[in-house]
């Protein structure tokens, strides 16, 4: 499988064990008015897209749909549990509940597929969901706006490599 520039960058994040930016900092940047950003819902198309991209980058496979559906199903279960419990407090998502329970649930769901990267995947997923940001905005926050723009440019060139050479 040929990885896109975005997938290569995301894979490098896991391989180097880099920690995502603190969600409180993300929230402050995403909502400068001081309002808390609503976390991304499990049924959001961007949630599925993000999960699929991450799994492809980690597993080096295109066909990760079943695993991605499994992860989204676990997210839906966590969201349903949080609706019933209405648990609040520091480190608690209004959508997914307490962070430790979220991380444990996701790690358990993906451990057999991602092995040593399960914990990092769970932390990255928490960071993305809690930010409430789009995929590109979250990538810009994690990697910086310049590297996100260059990765998107690299992806466009990879998708149509002959277009650059056909200008004659």
From TrEMBL:
Where in this protein does the record put region Disordered?
1-48, 146-168
Please report the stretch or stretches of sequence annotated as the PWI domain. 49-131
Top-level taxonomy: Eukaryota, Viridiplantae, Chlorophyta, core chlorophytes, Chlorophyceae
Q: Which positions make up the signal peptide?
A: none
Pfam families linked to this entry:
PWI (PF01480)
Report the protein name in the record.
Answer: PWI domain-containing protein
Composition bias, kind Acidic residues: at what positions?
Answer: 152-168
